[in-house]
Design brief:
alpha/beta; six-stranded mixed β-sheet; four-stranded antiparallel β-sheet; 27% helix; globular; binds ribulose-5-phosphate
């Protein structure tokens, strides 16, 4: 499913575009697909703007020309994955701890295309995934207490194959805040970001232009867009 939507999304990129390159396993396939189109000469004069170190590394592997966010005056299209998507196209992101940079890039794109498999679709955000919150290391205990006051069960995200916590690309910590369900994502996004010490959280409200969903029925894969 991920391959199907990533390959379709890669075809949306045209020569000359400035493209926001997303993060996560689906976006990684997308960046590689773009890289193949670039290397074959099918795409010319594209510029990538990375949402993470992961995206930068894959783009470098294929030689895709890259620019920093501060160096571009527009982004034509951003393509990124998501952890949950509701019927209003609101998202939870941050499964890869990249949501702060992802929001910076995705929110500045003229078009923001989200690529997911059908398991990511939910009626109400928060159904299965916590909201990732990027926090200054010196503030994490106080932020966790305040997230509890907002109704969450917070946990400090721990690393795998490294002792201690996950460190974000910006050198900060990630607190995963699990809510029962999120009835008002716009209000919660603001409330969390108002906590001192928080950089940004994984609620992406009214940012996505369209959602490309990969589905499998039997042994047939297909896709739809809304
Ligand atoms: C990273 C993200 C990813 O886009 C999100 O976690 C989806 O990843 P995957 O495509 O691996 O399911 O937000 O911070």
């Amino acid at each position: 499913m991920k391959h199907e939507v990533a390959a379709i999304a890669a075809q949306r990129v045209q020569s000359g575009m400035v493209v926001g390159l997303g993060s996560g396993s689906t976006a990684a396939i997308l960046v590689a697909e773009l890289g193949k189109r670039w290397q074959s000469g099918e795409l010319t004069e594209i510029t990538g703007v990375a949402t993470s170190f992961q995206a930068t590394a894959i783009a470098h592997e294929y030689g895709i020309p890259m620019a920093e966010l501060n160096d571009v005056d527009h982004i034509d299209l951003a393509i990124d994955g998501a952890d949950e998507v509701d019927p209003q196209k609101n998202l939870i992101k941050g499964g890869g701890a990249c949501h702060t940079r992802e929001k910076l890039v995705d929110s500045r794109a003229a078009e923001f295309l989200v690529v997911v498999d059908s398991t990511k679709l939910v009626d109400v955000l928060g159904s299965s995934f916590p909201v990732a919150v990027e926090v200054l290391p010196m503030a994490y205990v106080q932020v966790m207490k305040q997230l509890e006051e907002l109704g969450a069960t917070p946990t400090l995200r721990m690393a795998v194959r490294k002792a201690g916590p996950v460190i974000s690309d910006q050198g900060n910590l990630i607190v995963d805040a699990k809510f029962e369900s999120i009835a008002h994502p716009a209000d919660l996004e603001i409330a969390i970001n108002n906590l001192p010490g928080v950089l940004d959280n994984g609620l992406f409200v009214q940012l996505a232009t369209s959602i490309l969903v990969g589905e499998i029925e039997g042994d047939q894969s297909s896709h739809r867009e809304f």
